[in-house]
UniProtKB/TrEMBL annotation:
Entry keyword Plastid: no
Record keyword Heme present: yes
Protein name (record): Methyl farnesoate epoxidase
Record family assignment: Belongs to the cytochrome P450 family.
PROSITE patterns to which the protein is assigned, alphabetical: CYTOCHROME_P450
PANTHER family in UniProt: CYTOCHROME P450 306A1, CYTOCHROME P450 508A4-RELATED
Native species: Orchesella dallaii
Domain of life: Eukaryota
Keywords: Heme, Iron, Metal-binding, Monooxygenase, Oxidoreductase
Amino acid sequence: MSLLLSVGLFISAFLATTWYIYQHYHRKHKNYPPGPIPWPFLGNVLQVDGKHIYISFMEWSKTYGKIMSVKLGFHRALVINDPKMSREMFGDLTFSGRPQAYFVTVLSGGCNGILVSEGNVWEAQRRFTLRHLRDFGFGKNIMQDLIMDNAQEVITWMRQEAGHPLPDLQRRLSLAVLNSLWTIISGQRYSQNDPHLKALLDSIQEGAIAITRHPFLIVAPWIRHILPTISGYTKFQKVVDKMIGFFRDTIEEHKQSMVDGEPRDFIDSYLKEMKRTRDRTSSFYKDAGEQNLRAVVGDLFQAGSETTAITLTWSILFLMTHQDAQRKLQKEIDHVIGQSRSPVLKDRLKMPYTEAVILEVSRMASVIPLGVFHSALVDTYFHDFYIPKGTWIWTNQYAIHMDPHVWGDPENFHPERFLSKDGKTVLRTHESWMPFSTGKRQCPGESLARDSLFLFITSIFQKFTAVPEPNSPIPDILDSDDAFFRGPKPFSVIMKERVILSSPIIITVGE
Ligand code: HEM
């Protein structure tokens, strides 16, 4: 028996190695992009910096070039380190797929929704969502009011805590951003202290942490069947089930209370579309429609809330550690908005320095350092390189944002780099600025995110000055704590309320 087992194991190992070598040379022959030599079965997993994988890729690109290959377990992946190539590739539908792997599609229940779907489902769901979100606020005054309501709640909280280090700043900002999104999608308005809202945020964050702490679920998802607890599967699946349950209950409530012909919010509009869909192959038809609706709602939360909130947290850290930039920002706020009214989006046109701060924060933060991976939909060639169908593709946004050949001093926080020489005009398009990615799948929430950043930052710094807590260390702003997204290291900030003596003279209490 044991002899039989040994022979079996030997033959399997022999076949796997032969297949591996064949694949390796076959690709090399066809001019597959170069990269570090992968280990059998594990690929390059043991060679990367587990905490900052994008930094390992950035280092390797110095040897392997603008387009390089890596292997994660059995998965082939390419890393693009050049903005021109990324724009060219992601502008081509051939590269608009998403890896259909377990950890990617688990929340969506398969190839559903926008974020992880591809082909016809992706096109139809993305188009519908963008059109109908516009009806309920995207790009309209109603959205501005919603964001401002939540910014005001943050300001009230900061006022209560004024003079003391802010407890758990990022969480409060996440609740504020999530709340605006939730209102557009579901019509429900919560307070930022509401237990429902907090529970939803906890699930989103726990899911992100579970997947980052257990990378084997990414590179070797089959492990969940053998070691469900150690691999992190049991915990991850529990969080996923909780989130799906939350979305299912909300959709169910909408079905019960919806009045025909009068959609109150995005979910009602979607249910209406499902009702009128007769085509059985449509992704809006009956069960498929319901699964897609759950997936879209999940996508908007996953993609929209933490990204914006973490960028806001970075903004406070950068401005706290760069008092000169903070003073210039406040000067512009005082000049254009003053102290007696709230900011509105129209102010942006007259506030180039504030815009430059947002561009610079987004560059240095690179909250999604490798973007969201795409995949090749067919076997193809790109710049003479052979790219097999199903290859995962990342753009190393972090490497592009930190390229010294482009930025000169990328490690310095310097908003002026986005301004004309006289400081009056903001240089809006920079080829190497791509926190929202580019091409066919470019982030559809970019304008909402940028509106939110503008309104939150101007509202907060109109009223407060951010200073470090004297007894706490200031973190290295080039380092980060990564849990799926690239976030700042913990820091302690005190928001000092600004006091207005008479019109142009403003001082900060305690200065
Ligand atoms: C600072 C905030 C944000 C950043 C940095 C960001 C960045 C990104 C990036 C890099 C992608 C991947 C694009 C690609 O696959 O090439 C993406 C996709 C996406 N984002 Fe955002 N995003 C932000 C905010 C938002 C918001 C507020 C929403 C909506 C409420 C949103 C919704 C989406 C969706 C639905 C996708 C998937 C698009 C697709 O697959 O076609 N994002 N985002």
